[in-house]
């Protein structure tokens, strides 16, 4: 008997409980990878596990990404009153509500309180999320077919939201999520910005004037640099805006999030202490880069 046949025979030999050694090993690996009580059915629906509910190389990578992102949100939730047991969370640009489902399953499902709201403009995705939540018995989840801007005044949402998340919300949708968080007096925000085009467009419009006024404009003279500087500047302005509105801000990276190059993670905790220096720097940067108009729209200060 060759080695391959021998190994196959060993794998197929029934272990305790009637399972083959191969199946028993797969069960053990899955149990070790998942958190206690975690829904296998949800992970299959989200394509984090295979259709058979097993781990492979791709699913291991996805699961690692999920846990990496969740650890940031879990820490913020546990800092809230009652350890976040009754917290409300609004996920903007929810898509298939990947993030909302994971947070609910890992944090809220075992308890009696808390509510997750998924906000998404595509009606078909909202419908599918509602059906999945009903099928899994995730009864403290709501899915709303709204834009981020509309959600700030929508009657389906409470007057205060504890945690605001926006994962890869494109362009100004991240700014709308920040505005939503301010309007809802959010205790914390978790933002992964994407496709910041608005500031880059403004830089292009004023490029000729800027080049004649300051050598700093060389930083965005070429189109590729305009896009990159615009993206970086947008997030710097957002951080200053949050600090000016009473939040402490941490900027870090979503390590291993290979499916997107937009891995900058902005974590904001409400302190109630508005930083006058941040407001002053924000105004100075807007003026320096010829973006004063945004001070009346995106970055309006009281």
Strand order of the largest sheet: 3-2-1-4-5-7-6
Q: Rg to the nearest angstrom?
A: 23 Å
Distance between the termini: 81 Å
Low-confidence stretches: 1-10
Number of continuous helical runs: 12
Biggest sheet overview: 7 strands, mixed
Written as H for each helix and E for each strand, in order along the chain, the element string is HHHHEHEHEHEHEHHHEEH
How would you explain this protein's 3D organization?
- The protein has 302 residues and is α/β, with parallel strands linked by helices.
- It is 47% helix and 15% strand.
- The chain has helices spanning 3-12, 21-33, 40-45, 57-78, 98-108, 123-136, 148-151, 173-183, 198-205, 207-213, 223-244, 276-288; strands spanning 88-92, 115-120, 141-145, 163-170, 188-194, 247-253, 264-270.
- Strands 3-2-1-4-5-7-6 form a 7-stranded mixed beta sheet, with helices on both faces.
- α4 (57-78) crosses α5.
- Residues 1-10 have low confidence and may be disordered.
């Amino acid at each position: 008997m060759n080695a391959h046949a021998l190994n196959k025979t060993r794998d197929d030999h029934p272990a305790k409980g009637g399972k083959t050694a191969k199946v028993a090993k797969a069960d053990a690996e899955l149990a070790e990878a998942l958190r206690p009580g975690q829904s296998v059915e949800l992970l299959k629906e989200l394509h984090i596990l295979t259709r058979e509910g097993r781990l492979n190389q791709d699913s291991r990578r996805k699961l690692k990404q999920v846990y990496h992102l969740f650890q940031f949100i879990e820490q913020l939730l546990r800092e809230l009153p009652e350890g976040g047991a009754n917290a409300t969370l609004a996920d903007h640009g929810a898509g298939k509500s990947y993030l909302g489902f994971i947070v609910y399953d890992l944090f809220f499902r075992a308890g009696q309180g808390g509510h997750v709201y998924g906000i998404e403009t595509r009606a078909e995705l909202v419908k599918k999320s509602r059906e999945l939540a009903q099928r899994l018995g995730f009864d403290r989840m709501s899915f709303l077919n709204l834009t981020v801007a509309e959600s700030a005044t929508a009657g389906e949402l409470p007057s205060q939201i504890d945690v605001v998340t926006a994962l890869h919300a494109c362009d100004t949708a991240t700014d709308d999520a920040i505005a939503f968080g301010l309007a809802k007096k959010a205790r914390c925000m978790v933002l992964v910005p994407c496709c910041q085009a608005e500031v880059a467009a403004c830089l292009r419009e004023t490029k000729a004037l800027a080049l004649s006024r300051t050598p700093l404009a060389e930083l965005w003279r070429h189109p590729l640099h305009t896009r990159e500087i615009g993206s970086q500047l947008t997030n710097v302005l957002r951080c200053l805006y949050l600090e000016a509105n009473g939040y402490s801000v941490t900027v870090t990276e979503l390590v291993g999030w290979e499916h997107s190059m937009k891995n900058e993670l902005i974590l904001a905790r409400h302190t109630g202490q508005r930083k006058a220096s941040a407001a002053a720097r924000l105004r100075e940067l807007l003026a320096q880069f010829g973006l004063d108009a945004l001070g009346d729209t995106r970055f309006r200060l009281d």
